[in-house]
Amino acid sequence: MESTSDRPVIYLDYQATTPTDPRVVAAMEPFFTSRFGNPHSRTHRFGWEAEEAVENARGQVAALIGAEPREIVFTSGATESNNLAIKGVARFHQARGKSHIVTIATEHKCVLESCRDLVSEGIRTTFLPVRSDGLVELDALAAAITDDTALVSIMAANNEIGIVQPVAQIGELCHDRGVLFHSDAAQAVGKIPIDVEAMKIDLLSISGHKIYGPMGVGALYVRRRPRTRLNPLFSGGRQERGLRSGTLPTPLCVGLGMACAIAGEDMEAEAVRLLALRQKLLRGLEEIGGVSLNGALEPRLPGNLNVNFSGVAAESLMIEAASIAVSSGSACTSAAVEPSYVLCALGIPDEQAHSSIRFGIGRFTTESEIDDAIEAISMAVKKLREGGGDVAAE
Hints:
Layout: E1 10-11, H1 22-28, H2 45-65, E2 72-75, H3 78-94, E3 100-104, H4 109-117, E4 124-128, H5 138-144, E5 149-153, H6 167-177, E6 180-184, E7 203-207, E8 218-222, H7 250-286, E9 291-293, E10 304-309, H8 314-320, E11 324-325, H9 341-345, H10 350-353, E12 356-360, H11 367-386
């Protein structure tokens, strides 16, 4: 009998992470070996080459989001970018009489926890609910902003349900009220159009490994005009405009830049392809019966699908259909036994939340893989329902 480990596994968890594109790997390779200089060494050719490569990458990241290169601060990833944006702005403005932040209940854990960390420093946060479709109510957001508000932080696209927030409208609202707007765009950048100028975004977080770049690198866009002021998180050599000290990892910066360049070229056509695959997957899953969508179908990332299977525990389904790599929620909370806080925020009952699966379709997903996934999930759901919803003990 063929073992589970011998079966080819179909990867459908692109919201958790993406494989590094071979073109990105090729661009990075020389900077690990022959062009290994420190980009902050300005006395010899090795350092000059590394610095030039980093600045080229900075320009590639900026071009994808409509920013200026000098507005891009390299970080270790979106978690650091979010921490820097939220804590940096809050601490700077608290000293100037503003000590309030507004965010929403479905944000990534690093945003929610950053806000909670600031409570001990006397900074308050309003956690707004979302509607059953996953979208924030703009009237509620407007009502939550006060004269004490320094920052609104609302993600561009949700990592679990793929819902795309009305970022341009939020930016306009914040701009009119004189409040800074930060958006965690780790899931959105490179998948849907983002223009920081048109959307009036002051700070925006980016993650390399969500857009077919390497793990361990990200960026924070920080608006220069009008200047967005924030305190750094830690001390050092004052690299990156004094906002993020430390030696920049040249290969990773190059990889992020190349990933952004590729995404900018391919995004429109790729979105059409992914949407077609998502529609095919949804139709196939709906034929199983007892399957319902979590959150609105639109506006949603083209490669995201989050559904619940009535009468079937998600953990059991993932075990039974082990040839399909999916998840029951955010990879950052995968150790939790509680139902997804994102789904609960939508008003979805615990039982349905425990029966929910996130499917993430990406650049290397094929139509035949979608067909195979539908078949595998269908067989697993049928078996589990016949057995009472759980995998039988062996």
